[in-house]
Structure formats: structure tokens, C-alpha cells
Design brief:
alpha/beta, formyl-coa transferase, domain 3, 2 domains, CoA-Trfase_fam_III, CaiB/BaiF CoA-transferase family protein, CoA-Trfase_III_dom_1_sf, transferase
Length: about 400
């Protein structure tokens, strides 16, 4: 009974699932790393020079921060699938696989005979996932799709930043979004296969993900009064909702979401209950319309208080707030969770997975060296004298 309970505690939802991925950079590797965290066996196919993300930087104890984040717990197999023997090896592996993920340029795998439709015809239970920049049809599909470029093309950069300058979202958010959407697609296809017995093809693009996030500004532009302008650390349609600077030069963002919160804020933080009755600030619509006067009133109080005094008053007013922290300050945040991961000869404290689950290991498996598993995988999927996979 104890052994059964221990097995139940450690079982992961994708135990036994085999994922093959021809991947590079960020979106596809992030997708498959999430699948690996759920228990999948992920076989990463690399060219002789390796995933170019291996060379992005050396911040993680001499290794690429991008690579160690998105390739934990995978196996690395170096092949050239354009060569007949390696193509045959890849087919033998795919014959045993459940999922195939790829994010090469549109058409690259089709020319080699490994496009999703052909693979699903040959292996009916296989799930294929294609990750592209702009889809596979139309003029836009030919565009190169690096993250910042997609931020620009999708309009995301157009509403980010301060009024005087566009701003890039500070992480590769379009790549990350595509990777997460791909993981959702793969999990959905696995669930469907449980009912039908058949694999299916799913696809995501960086642009589709960014466009989905742009739905609110899109609707405002087409059917409202126009898309929001760049506001920096201010909300375009709620006030007060933005950053104010304390006497000791600390920026704190506050958010007041309704009239009850506004009245509490006026009484306990501003210590001006009468401000709640000011016709200019009587509703969110009026506060947004009179934002300059509102911000001036609030900024004056912030300027008289140091950070500790400000936080005490905000707490007394039950006002939501967030301190604008540096990455160094984020690294010591009381809410931050980390897991250890071996990288070279050191143990790094990596940010823990965002999904907390019963199957959490409490540590990360290491990322593979280039071709680390080539010999063992070639042996595992070798052809016997009788012509069958060993």
C-alpha cells in the first residue's frame, strides 16, 4: 500500500509520452520543456552545430541562459535528416513517438518529407505541432519572425513604452506566448486522441498569439474611440492606476478599481475625504478625463512621504499597490520560488515552474550537451538483422 501511494505521488501526467522536436531558439524548446516537466520523454533533434540558442550568452555558469531554461531534462540527438540513413533513423523514432514539434522555416521539413500531414498519414496516432512566425499562407508567412519584430508587426510595441518613445516588452514575450500556446495545443490533441485513437495536427504562430493579446486595443480601435496610446506606467482607461514617486525617490504603482476603493483612498491615504466628492473625480470616467489634476493631487502627497510611510498609508487605505522593482530586487522577492539545477560544475537556483502540481520534483534535470545522447539513441533505434527496430 505504501509503495502504491508513493507511486501515486510521483506519477506525472505525461509519463510514457515520447516527444520528438526539431527545434531552435525559444518557442518550440519552451513548449517541449513544459511537456518534459509533465513527464514526457523529449528527444531534441539538433544539427551538427547545435541549436543556435546554445550560443546566445554565457550567463548561466558559462552556458546560455536561454538554453538551460528551455531544454531541461531533454535528450540531444545530432543528425542530418537530409541524409538517407539519418532520415530512416528519424522515421524509426517517429514510429515510436506520440508528438512531433517543429519550428523551422515554413516548408523546410516538407522538402525533406517530414511535414505534419505526411507524418500523420504514415503514423496515424502521431500528433504534430508546427510553430511559425506568421502562419504558412499568404505574403506575411515569408517574413522572418524574431520576437521584437513580431512585437512591432502586431502593434504590441505601438502601445508599449512611454508617450515619447515606443517600448519593447522586456522579455521575448511573443516567443514565450507561442511556446505556451503550442503546449496547450499538444495537450488538447493528446486529450482528443484518448477519445478517438487518432493523432491530429495543431499549429500556432507568434503573430497569432500577439494578436490575441491585442484584442482589447483592437476592439477599441475598430469599434470604440480609438486604441489606447502609450502611457508608460499608467493604465489607459482606469484612474488612478499608475506610478507615483515617494520622497525618497521610490516608484510605486497604485490601482483604484471602484468607487468604494476611491473613497477609502481619499480618506486614509490622501487624508482628504472631500476629494471623493469632487465632481472632477466622482467616477472613473471623470477621473480619466481629469487625469492631470488627479495625478497632481496624488503626486503631491507621495512627494511628502518616504517609502515606509507610503506603504503604511496604502495598507491602511486597503489600496492595491506594487513597488517598481529591479531584477536584483525581484531575485529576493518573498513570493519568488526557485528549484536547484545542475549547470556544469555549479548548482543554480532557477525560477520554479509557474504551475504548482502534485508531481513537482522540486529540482530541474540538467540540459543536455550537444549530441550527448546520440550514441544511445542510435543504438536504441537501430535496425536488427531481421529488419525491425531493436
Amino acid at each position: 500500500m505504501a509503495a502504491f501511494l508513493e507511486q501515486a505521488r510521483t506519477a506525472r501526467p505525461l509519463d510514457g509520452v515520447v516527444v520528438v522536436s526539431i527545434e531552435q531558439a525559444l518557442a518550440a524548446p519552451l513548449c517541449t520543456s513544459r511537456l518534459a516537466e509533465m513527464g514526457a520523454r523529449v528527444i531534441k533533434i539538433e544539427r551538427a552545430e547545435g541549436d543556435f540558442a546554445r550560443g546566445y550568452d554565457d550567463a548561466a555558469n558559462g552556458q546560455s541562459s536561454y538554453f538551460v531554461w528551455t531544454n531541461r531534462g531533454k535528450e540531444s540527438l545530432v543528425i542530418d535528416f537530409k541524409q538517407p540513413d539519418d532520415a530512416a533513423l528519424l522515421h524509426r523514432i517517429l514510429g515510436e513517438a506520440d508528438v512531433f514539434v517543429q519550428n523551422l522555416a515554413p516548408g523546410a521539413l516538407a522538402r525533406a518529407g517530414f511535414d505534419g500531414a505526411s507524418l500523420r498519414e504514415r503514423y496515424p496516432r502521431l500528433i504534430t505541432c508546427d510553430i511559425t512566425g506568421y502562419g504558412t499562407q499568404g505574403e506575411a508567412s515569408k517574413l522572418k519572425a524574431y520576437d521584437l519584430l513580431v512585437q512591432c508587426e502586431s502593434g504590441l510595441a505601438g502601445i508599449s513604452g512611454a508617450p515619447e518613445a515606443y517600448g519593447r516588452i522586456g522579455v521575448s514575450i511573443c516567443d514565450i506566448g507561442a511556446g505556451m500556446n503550442a503546449a496547450i495545443g499538444v495537450l488538447s490533441a493528446l486529450a482528443l486522441r484518448e477519445r478517438t485513437g487518432q493523432g491530429s495536427g495543431v499549429s500556432v504562430s507568434l503573430f497569432d498569439g500577439a494578436a490575441d493579446w491585442m484584442t482589447i486595443p483592437y476592439l477599441h480601435e475598430l469599434y470604440g474611440q480609438g486604441a489606447p496610446t502609450r502611457q508608460g506606467l499608467k493604465h489607459p482607461s482606469i484612474a488612478p492606476y499608475g506610478a507615483f514617486t515617494t520622497k525618497d525617490r521610490r516608484d510605486i504603482v497604485i490601482s483604484v478599481q471602484n468607487e468604494r476603493e476611491w473613497q477609502q483612498f481619499c480618506a486614509a491615504f490622501l487624508q482628504r475625504p472631500d476629494a471623493a466628492q469632487d465632481a472632477r473625480f466622482a467616477s472613473n470616467t471623470e477621473r480619466v478625463r481629469n487625469r492631470a489634476a488627479l495625478d497632481s493631487l496624488i503626486a503631491g502627497v507621495f512627494a511628502e512621504l518616504n517609502t515606509d510611510e507610503t506603504l503604511v498609508r496604502l495598507s491602511a487605505a486597503n489600496t492595491a499597490y506594487g513597488q517598481v522593482r529591479s531584477v536584483a530586487e525581484m531575485s529576493t522577492h518573498p513570493a519568488l520560488r526557485t528549484w536547484p539545477m545542475r549547470v556544469g560544475d555549479a548548482e543554480l537556483h532557477m525560477v520554479a515552474p509557474p504551475v504548482r502540481a502534485p508531481w513537482d520534483q522540486g529540482h530541474f534535470d540538467r540540459a543536455p550537451a550537444l549530441g550527448e545522447h546520440s550514441a544511445s539513441l542510435r543504438a536504441e533505434f537501430a535496425v536488427s538483422e531481421a529488419g525491425a527496430t531493436v
